[in-house]
Design goal:
The protein is about 65% helix and about 0% strand. It contains four helices and no strands. It is mainly α. It starts with 11 loop residues before the first helix and ends with a helix. Helix 1 crosses helix 3 and helix 2 crosses helix 3. It folds into two domains: about 55 residues, Arc Repressor Mutant, subunit A, CATH 1.10.10; about 35 residues.
Amino acid sequence: MEEKKERRNFDRAFKEEVVRLVTEGRRAVSEVARDLDIHPNLVHRWKRMQLKEGKDAFPGKGHMRPEEEELRKLKRRLADVEEERDILKKALAIFSKHPR
């Protein structure tokens, strides 16, 4: 029976250092990955994220990039406004049915 490897978590500083070793240190991805006992695809993914997102890369578990956080807030606000609108529509329908 094959033993499962425990999933490892890497913090932001570690990921940034790995990317720095590859980009500034002029070391091969495979060499860095082998030295740190991580899969080369992981190093490639971190490198792509760093290039694409810059300082916002690797936000951490449970954290969002600023634009994702803003989008989430806007969606929540839209849902609130739609709920308020629906309540007002129902109230208008109720009050317009009853003669005074």
